[in-house]
Design a protein that fits this description.
The complex is a heterodimer of chains A (365) and B (336). Chain A is of the alpha/beta class. Chain A is 36% helix and 17% strand. Chain A folds into 2 domains: 287 residues, Rossmann fold, CATH 3.40.50; 44 residues, no CATH class. With 336 residues, chain B is an alpha+beta fold. Classes of the chains: A alpha/beta (365), B alpha+beta (336).
Chain lengths: 365, 336
């Protein structure tokens, strides 16, 4: 198989060099936010916190797609599984997310036809193989996954597949960053920007944000040396008081991004105001299917109504997603809210901040 | 248990499985306690100690690179007996077959079972077959049970790990689980992965011949190495410290894990064992493992420690530290 492993970015010697540099440069306490859930996980898995100075705080942002999907949407997904002659196709992360009464996993146990797929094209295949069924794909994710879902809709349109539908709950990263910056409770000194999303949107997409707020920014990859490079860049920028929009992941990310993917995304989706769990409605931060493709838009085709949902009492996910609280500050954390019985969204996804803390963090570390 | 329905998570081998066993099964069958949850039961019958174990096999696909459900069913139970320190002798086989199942496939499975039994030097002495209507099982399910004799002086249990012991593994991890996953419907990439299914009784025999002081033997099947080490830490009330850079994993396995967001520490193995051995005997036990055809890549991966009892910690490649918790439920591929 032709996947080249990122071995050199795990080299302990290279990591040691970066760690030394961070220790030498860093003088004052700083709060850095990693926006992306994959970064949160990688920081724990590589044990990054223990090798950098204690006065560098790493906070998680709103970059776990499952975590920011509203309970209303989850309830809608579950309601869709009850439609006649329907197969609901989803990426794995969503299976366990609790709705008000149930979860996709529990509905599957009750006999609903819910398929876990690895690619949206598997969902399209399901549509081809089951012409008498309606296939609804649950589109959750950021700009990383949205282009492949756009491609599947274009493909379905071209091939005349009329039993394939997408429920789009896609979100865009940059409007959420603007919303964070405008929130007066949020107090961060630098942003570790997501690697995968940036492959698609390019570093130029962050330019308006940077020009407005002049906050140190570094796009980073996910191997230990990648993350340390990102942190090192931010510390340099902060200590020298010269904020930049730095790309520390040039082997994957360019200034312009992936134009083809971006074009496909724009062709199928348009921006819309959307609600983020814990953060509220953020203007132009969602992606809805354009009218010309409305035949594939599950939101338009299937009229499923679910009651308005109230956030669980005491759940601090909103503050955790903004980096104003860390998971152990939440009264429910590890007591009422655990990965096997999650209350809030940050405990559900494997990339959720609370789930990562629960799995990898210990008071003795 | 919070759920009122059995979910696939309850079969994952991790925390949810433990909940099912400890909260639903053990209260009914109260002859077993959680501390007794080794790979098999150890029975004293007229002064002879027997290891007795059972396992059911429901793997999908039934044929996969490196093996099939047949040899897997033999090796699985042979290994469970071997992990009790027993020499496996006799096996029973129960087949539950879906109507319409091709006889040719059944034959292929049976011959693989025969071959695996011969290789492990055990005899299949009794069995049962059931055929059920279409859809009542998925193609074929197999149960095997087995017994073996434990020699005097051999005392192996998940409760026996002691601070100062060394933790050994017999080879590269996560091969079976990722092979199965990459051959399931829906995953369309070519890979060179091969399941590691193998019987380890000859390896264990050799290990026991060089040291009677082996404390714990476990085959890290469902739930993987991470979950198995947690079980040992819990049963023995000790801490375990492992080192990321020492854990053997083939690049192709690591790459697929990464692609799907799976942690290889929680992926199933079917031909690997973990041994916890007093430091004095660790070298000779390691050499004994390496002599076996399935143990060539065996190595030391960590220590049993006084600190952080009932928890497993891992020193990462860059010198950081993380908890290795027990798997919560089935690992799910991530969105991005």
């Amino acid at each position: 198989m032709a996947i080249k492993h990122a071995e050199e970015y795990r080299d302990p010697d290279i990591a040691a060099m970066l760690i030394r540099k961070i220790h030498q440069t860093s003088q004052k306490p700083v709060r850095l936010m990693e926006v992306c859930g994959t970064h949160t996980m990688a920081i724990f898995r590589h044990g990054i916190r223990q090798v950098i100075p204690d006065h560098i705080s790493l906070l998680s942002g709103p970059g776990c797609p499952v975590c920011v999907t509203t309970q209303q949407e989850i309830d809608t997904f579950i309601a869709l599984t009850g439609l006649e002659k329907t197969i609901v196709a989803t990426f794995g992360d969503l299976m366990r997310v609790p709705g008000t009464e149930s979860s996709l996993q529990k509905e599957r146990a009750c006999g609903k036809d819910i398929r876990m797929v690895y690619s949206t094209f598997d969902a399209l295949d399901l549509a081809k193989k089951n012409p008498d069924k309606k296939i609804i794909f649950l589109g959750v994710g950021f700009e990383t996954t949205a282009p492949t879902i756009a491609a599947s809709i274009i493909c379905a349109c071209r091939e005349g597949i009329n039993n394939y539908f997408v429920y789009s709950s896609h979100k865009r990263v940059t409007p959420a960053l603007f919303a964070l910056m405008e929130d007066e409770d949020v107090n961060i000194d630098g942003l570790i920007l997501p690697g995968h999303v940036s492959v698609i949107i390019g570093t130029d997409a962050y330019r308006p944000l940077f020009d407005k707020y002049h906050l140190p920014c570094a796009v980073a990859g996910f191997e230990p040396a990648d993350i340390l490079k990102g942190i090192s860049s931010l510390i340099d920028q902060i200590e020298s008081q010269h904020p930049r929009l730095d790309n520390t992941y040039p082997r994957a990310v360019t200034a312009g991004g992936n134009k083809k993917a971006e074009a496909m995304l724009q062709h199928v989706f348009e921006n819309t105001d959307t609600e983020w769990r814990g953060l509220g409605t953020i203007p132009q931060s969602g992606l809805k299917i354009r009218e010309v493709f409305e035949a594939f838009d599950a939101q338009k085709v299937f009229a499923v109504k679910v009651p308005k949902f109230k956030e669980p009492r005491g759940c601090a996910c909103g503050n955790v997603l903004k980096g104003t609280l860390t998971p152990p500050d939440c009264p429910l954390y590890s007591k009422l809210c655990t990965p096997t019985s999650p209350v809030g969204p940050c405990m559900v996804s494997s990339e959720g901040t609370c789930s990562a803390y629960y799995r990898y963090h210990s008071n003795s570390l | 248990m919070k759920s009122d329905k059995i979910l696939l998570d309850h079969g994952s081998g991790g925390k949810a499985s433990h909940q099912l066993i400890c909260e639903i099964l053990l209260p009914v069958f109260d002859s077993v306690t959680p501390a007794d949850l080794d790979d098999g039961a150890i029975l004293d019958i007229g002064g002879t100690r027997l290891a007795f174990s059972t396992d059911s096999f429901v793997v999908d696909p039934i044929f996969f690179p490196g093996g099939c459900i047949g040899d897997l069913a033999i090796n699985g139970t042979v290994n469970d007996i071997a992990m009790c320190g027993g020499t496996p002798l006799y096996l029973s086989v129960g087949l539950i077959i879906e109507e319409g199942f091709p006889v040719e496939d059944l034959n292929r499975i049976l011959y693989e079972m025969k071959r695996a039994a011969q290789k492990a030097d055990i005899q299949i002495v009794t069995g049962d077959t059931k055929v059920v209507s279409k859809g009542a099982v998925d193609k074929i399910f197999i149960n095997t049970s087995g017994i073996g004799i434990i020699e005097d002086g051999t005392h192996i249990s998940g409760q026996n790990a002691r601070p100062g012991d060394k933790v050994l593994i017999s080879g590269a991890i996560a091969e079976h689980g990722m092979t199965i996953l990459s051959h399931r419907e829906g995953l369309k990439f070519e890979s060179s992965l091969v399941s590691d299914t193998a019987s380890l009784n000859h390896m264990v025999k050799k290990m026991l011949s060089v040291s009677k002081k082996i404390h714990v033997l476990r085959d890290p099947t469902r739930g993987g190495v991470g979950t198995t080490l947690n079980e040992i830490a819990l049963q023995s009330k000790v801490g375990i410290q492992i080192y990321e850079h020492l854990i053997p994993i083939k690049p192709a396995v690591a790459a697929i894990c990464e692609l799907l967001g799976f942690d290889p520490l929680y992926v199933a193995n079917e031909g690997k064992l973990i041994a916890v051995v007093p430091a004095d005997d660790a070298e000779k036990v390691l050499s004994a493992i390496k002599e076996n055809e399935f143990g060539k890549d065996a190595c030391f991966i960590g220590n049993v420690v006084d600190e952080h009892p009932e928890q497993v910690f891992m020193t990462t490649r860059i010198g950081g530290q993380r908890i290795v918790d027990m798997l919560a439920g089935e690992q799910l591929p991530r969105i991005c």
